[in-house]
Amino acid sequence: MSAEIKVVVDAMGGDNAPEAPVHGAVDALNEADNINVILVGRTDDIKKELSKYTYDEKRIEIVHADDVIGFDEPPVMAIRKKKNSSIVVGMNLVKHGEADAFVSAGSTGAILVGGQFIVGRIKGVERAPLAPLIPTEKGASLLIDCGANVDARSSHLVQFAKMGSIYMKNVVGVENPKVAIVNIGAEEEKGNMLVKETYPLLKECTDINFVGSIEARDIPKGDADVIVCEAFVGNVILKLYEGLASTLLHKVKEGLMSTLRSKIGALLIKPALKKTMKQFDVSDQGGAPLLGLNGLVVKAHGSSSNLEIKQAIKQCTQFSEEKINEKIKENLTVD
Amino acid sequence: MSAEIKVVVDAMGGDNAPEAPVHGAVDALNEADNINVILVGRTDDIKKELSKYTYDEKRIEIVHADDVIGFDEPPVMAIRKKKNSSIVVGMNLVKHGEADAFVSAGSTGAILVGGQFIVGRIKGVERAPLAPLIPTEKGASLLIDCGANVDARSSHLVQFAKMGSIYMKNVVGVENPKVAIVNIGAEEEKGNMLVKETYPLLKECTDINFVGSIEARDIPKGDADVIVCEAFVGNVILKLYEGLASTLLHKVKEGLMSTLRSKIGALLIKPALKKTMKQFDVSDQGGAPLLGLNGLVVKAHGSSSNLEIKQAIKQCTQFSEEKINEKIKENLTVD
Questions:
Q1: Which of A82-96, A298-312, B6-20 has the lowest mean pLDDT?
Q2: ipTM of predicted complex
């Protein structure tokens, strides 16, 4: 029997709000009986959506929030000014111990800023990285950091490596996860100043399985489970993954429509091709945790459907059951 | 009628040397009558290869070089010690004005180091960037810098933007090329310290068509012609392009072989699919110029075939005819 968990879901966050978050929350409840949900946002909108479904009313609570933070608002200002936005209200519930986790498909910037300033970092954690899973030939790797922590220091990257290892081992279930640092060559002496400083520090860590540098070309092969980099580079990798996969798919489709012969072939391969491309869809890997905070914050893709929101909510139970934050505390304060 | 050009070809460089460079050189001669070639490397090996072909003997010269710099040798040391390697001997020919350009599929590191220290930078050019063309939906964009110039400063990036614009306009033929800086968001206030410093400087340049930030997701769409970034980020983009395209192709093939239905379809779409994937092959975009040097240095992909070497050689004539270096000198010394 697993422990109960209370997850705050941002009912106003994402391209498909409030439909997707409300629908996803109901589905999560119906699939896992240890989950309770607080839907935060405009009460009327939430009630209207909820009226479409059957669910255990005792397990869903609504907390009203009038405002919504848009995708294009400067995050720091938005978090400071919009005290009554779904993100700020929701994160405050986690901060005050009224919930264990916060899930949102809203503005990444606002979620990152709110995570750091409202929920707050675990004592000893210097920075809270955003760590999405990216698809690889072998399954998925954790790309840490893809947040907004630009101009990182080597001590940050070492903490990312440790937190990433704990997450991959305990939440994703990879035994002894391989940790690599993104570099422009495989040799230890290669790299920019940050990588050269970080490499020997990672080598010294006895609590992670550091395998050395990884070149970007080898990331899609799945050669490492935890891919450490500073946020600017992580962001480039994550977004190029999305962009290139979508462009290639588009090109393949265009190619398939170019001759009668290929058009007939296209009809036959459609199901197989669709399955393959789905495996390589970054947005399909569930939510990305913001690690190292006093509570769990999960950023779901902006275009999340109810399925993805449901996944992100269910992911929180694993995080909570495996006591990830306790493990992070133990590991990061030993040094 | 176009002016004569003399190109030094590294006969020992690349996975397919000496076959590919010698064969490529002969083909270039036979296709363009204003090209003369110096093949540099082990005379016996070169003669043996040359004996397979028919060509105008007056237009090919052999310059002997005993040594070869391997892909895994530390570049600075290799350039310093191996005075009689094909790269060092070849670059010295350009330095001393005995040839206009040097083409090699050998060690990128050694070519970058040799370019800076042997051929030397144009006065006023702070750093010589490696600028490959990468495939996009609309054709190709110049990714500048992908070299080994890590930890760049904003003044370097401004020069990259200018040199890249000159190259795209005059060699590739893009009128008023759009220049963008790689960033983690579209807004001016986003980015790391380097990008925030560089952005306003690029905005002030009246001689380039600066269109602002580009997120990595939009690079494959071809939204900009000249993509400016520091070398670490450029290297990640270039190599992820290679890796992801190859992994996706592999996955698509795997998917196509998964059912009988898709196997039949695969036979029908093969030619169309092959053509599409070829368009997105980074190694198929010809050689990457090392810009801003006193002479032209072109790095061809390590796995180049004779076709790619031939392309890289022919590319040099355009560079020379359009007087790219004169244009770089004029533009970079005005400030």
A1: A298-312
A2: 0.89
- Of the residues A130, A247, A253, A257, the best mutation for testing chain B's interface (the one with the most B CB atoms within 10 Å of its CB) is A247
Measured torsion, CA atoms of residues A110, A115, A119, A125, in degrees rounded to the nearest 10: -160
Question: In the predicted model, is pLDDT for residue B269 greater than 90?
Answer: no
* Interface touch A265/B266, C-beta < 8 Å: yes
Is B267 in the A-facing interface, judged by CB distances under 8 Å?
yes
**Which pLDDT score, from 0 to 100, does residue A1 have?**
44
The type of residue at A168 is M
DSSP label of A287: P
A288 vs A225: CA distance, rounded Å: 15
Which CA distances in Å does A304 have to A234, A235, A278?
A: 21, 19, 14
pLDDT tens for A19-69 read 999 999 999 999 999 999 999 999 999 999 999 999 999 999 999 999 999
List chain A residues with CB under 8 Å of B221: 243, 247
d(CA A209, CA A18): 42
Chain B residue closest in CA terms to A188: B74
Mean model confidence pLDDT for chain A: 91
Residue type, B208: I
Cα–Cα separations (whole angstroms), residue B311 to B28, B29, B52, B306, B321 = 8, 11, 20, 9, 16
Q: What sign results for the dihedral spanned by CA atoms B310, B294, B237, A109? A: negative
Q: Is the pTM of this model over 0.80?
A: yes
Partners of B77 on chain A (C-beta within 8 Å) are none
Position B210, amino acid: F
Q: How many CB pairs under 8 A join A and B?
A: 197
Q: Where are the alpha helices (DSSP H) in B32-153?
A: 43-50, 75-81, 86-95, 108-114
B252 and A273 in contact by Cβ < 8 A? yes
Subunit contact A216:B232, Cβ cutoff 8 A: no
